[in-house]
Amino acid sequence: MKSLILTITVVLSIACWSNIAAQNTVMTPESADMIFTLRGGKLLEKVSLQEMKEIDAVNNIFAQMVRASGESGRKIDELGINLYANAQLFMSFKEEGTMLMGTTFELDDVKVFKSIFMKDAEIKNELGVEYSISDGYTRAIKGNQGLITYAVITPSYEKESFYYDETPIAPEYYYDENTLLEEDIVETIPYEEEAAEQMEIIEDSINLEYLKEIESIEELSYYEQLEIEETVQIDEITNYSKNYALELLANNFSTATSLDSKMVDPKADFSLVINGSSSLFKYMMNSTPGTYKSSTVKQLEAMMDDMYADFKWMSLNGFYDKDELRVESNAKLGGDMSEWCAEMMNAEVNSEMLKYIPYNDQIAFVSGAYDTKSILNGYYGYLKKMVKSLPSEEGIDVGEVSSIIIDFVDLFLDENAISQLIKGDFYAGITDINTYDVEYTTYEYDEEWNYKEITGIKQEVLPDFLIMFSSEDEKNINNFFRLAEISSNGEFKKENNYYKLAAGKESPIDIYAMQKEGIVFIFSSQVVLDFIQNGGGSPSSKQKSSITDYSSVMRINGEELANKVPLEDLPTDAKSMVDFMRETAGNISFTQKKIMRDVLSSEVTLSTRGEHANSLDYFLSTFNELINMNQSNNTLRN
Amino acid sequence: MKYLILIILAFSLSSCFEIIEEVNVNNDGSGALSYTVNLSQSRTKINSLMLLDSIKGQKIPDENDLRIKINEVLELMEKTEGITNLKQELNFNDYIFKFSCDFAHTNALNEATRIVKSAYDINDPYANSDDHFTFDSSSKSFRRKGDYSDEADLEKVKQQDLALLKNAEFTGIYRFQSDINSVSNTETRISPNKRAAMIKVNVLDLMTKKFTLENIITLN
Lengths: 638, 220
Description:
The complex is a heterodimer.
Chain A: H1 2-14, E1 34-39, H2 40-46, H3 49-53, H4 56-68, E2 86-94, E3 98-106, H5 110-117, E4 124-126, E5 129-134, E6 137-142, E7 145-153, E8 161-164, H6 182-188, H7 191-203, H8 209-218, H9 222-250, E9 270-274, H10 278-286, E10 290-293, H11 294-308, E11 311-320, E12 324-333, H12 335-345, H13 351-354, E13 364-369, H14 372-387, H15 398-412, H16 415-421, E14 425-445, E15 451-470, H17 474-487, E16 492-495, E17 498-501, E18 511-516, E19 519-523, H18 526-533, H19 541-548, E20 550-557, H20 558-564, H21 572-584, E21 587-593, E22 599-607, H22 615-637
Parallel strand pairs in A: 8-10
Antiparallel strand pairs in A: 1-2, 1-9, 2-3, 3-7, 4-5, 5-6, 6-7, 9-11, 11-12, 12-22, 13-14, 13-20, 14-15, 15-19, 16-17, 17-18, 18-19, 20-21, 21-22
Helix pairs in contact in A: 1-4, 11-14, 12-14, 14-15, 14-16, 20-21, 21-22
Chain B: H1 2-11, E1 18-25, E2 31-38, H2 43-50, E3 54-55, E4 58-59, H3 63-78, E5 83-91, E6 96-103, H4 106-119, E7 133-136, E8 141-144, H5 159-166, E9 169-176, E10 180-183, E11 189-190, E12 196-202, H6 203-207, E13 215-219
Parallel strand pairs in B: 1-9
Antiparallel strand pairs in B: 1-2, 2-6, 3-4, 5-6, 7-8, 8-13, 9-12, 10-13, 11-12
């Protein structure tokens, strides 16, 4: 499996350059559940092939590739693959743990490609397609179009998950039907034990008593039988993979799916589309170790269908811009989910809260605007939808019973009261990182080595933070503060209009709590206290919109964070990493937009630092330096 | 990920702990033992950890869990013949834990160790035998075992854990009713009245075998 992933990754990496922007969907089979596209032409415009070849990290990856094909000494542009053309990786998830993976790419030298990748097996020709099969891979060529497919269905002896039915089935994995009558096996092995025993064999394919019994009946060793089965299954999946590849190429991908332009942005350097999530999760479930009745599996699959029915598709589009790597994601929702998410996520941040955000002193922060009442109202409906298809147990409809229990829980919870207490909008930020004196207990020894406790002082690096959230329930917030005051033995006490937990045994830093203008504040700095007491600041409309335009936001100032980390106590490896980050770390940002037309959109950006032609250049050189640093640290350690 | 590493590094430094082992041995081999485990320097970190239910899949025990477990161990020790007057002081504010007991002979301490290890099926990879303390009243010699079988493989120890151990200290104090004649461990300091010996070593140095606790103290 590792070699499979490595090969696919490497082939994809080699063939990842394309500027055929319009051809996003041409090579993608209709049944694909996941499609990953890399546009090499765009990438090679940003970092030239020559520059790419000079990067150690890239060279290492391709060296692996060349080794895997039994070649050595070749460069990345000497594999017959058109590095400037589109490349796509697609996956189709089938039920019962079958997955088909394929990689499509364009060739600029068919002869060279054949000499490297198709040299280990006879090249055949069917339906106008040249192909060879080795190690389970089908490598097929038509014209200058290349396609590699591989199907995965875990053979029974190492299959991580399999099913048994209430109706006894012949344990076909363990006998050769040419030499054994099915009824012999059924009589020999009580069915009830069969599934569990199969699982044991899978986990620990060593002699089991009943296997010895079979051996004596069959006069075949267990391992010989496994070989038979393995061969049969490998042949089956290889044929499946081959037929799939031939059909696609022979028909010039005429069954290609038509990806919506909302899903894939042709301007992106790379894209990923997940076409519905149900099949993916079903595949994951089927690959999860366990032994299930087939009826249970069917019910679980129905549950998956219910759970993910409202997720239509998801896509990612990545852009290596001049100063940042930007990844946009979109998820198409449907049905109740869309309505629920819109109600839940399209809430507004309390406008009063905006003036208390220390815009210029944020090292990192996260903010969000959610509607607690909508979350609670929709949650129970969604939960009921999830449990609806739960499998019945001993004649009891578990789904229905669970649904009734959820209704009861819903009955007892007062959504209005909860949503008044916590409205759902919040801000949590790190405003500074400081070194504090912290007391601890240590010992002083006299001449006779008798010892007594003394107080020592050491320095600790701790963050100053500010947490805010809206509340319309002043009384109960006060109740919480009072309760904390009562239970803290006087350490948490009211001073003027705020509560303070003074630095000491309970906390190494002062912690303040107060409420004002419908906002609850919890923070750790006298500076912030003064800021709040004085009515906050006057943010610009740009500063306000950096919060209010989104459903949620997270930003980290990488340079500031790296600069605040003290180097003194760090291990050598970590020191060099922090030093490196002080020079190179940019900012990271995540924004979740409000839901528009059933689409949940978000964006992640990683900004660059220093002199770089563009963000791809920045990330490749940063990655390269990190690898070199790691190697250097390893050398020093040894 | 590197941002996460930074944040973790920023707030998890300067943690360390102290262990004090104090053994008072009478001329007949009886005596008193006390252990002090002082984690107060790591209080901030432990407080943070205690807020979590689990970390990396490992359950974080709460105060009650710890009390129950400690009591279980002490009850087992108490059943050992020759062990009396077991006491504990559990300070969960500063994370300082003290245990003490009297023993009729050092053999009783070793037996108690065996019982506890057996009850919890502890396979101590560092100890060759359970006789941590031996006192021979005829030759008037006390031995503190410190011959750990394996050097810790530092390659397998995470950098952050190493930083933690670098600042951790072990102090052993051994008192006698007779004057000390000689000590085998060169790191040992003898008190002016010659009735007490102390060894203070870094835990990481013990793990890497730079220093050992192995010590034979001969009395006059």
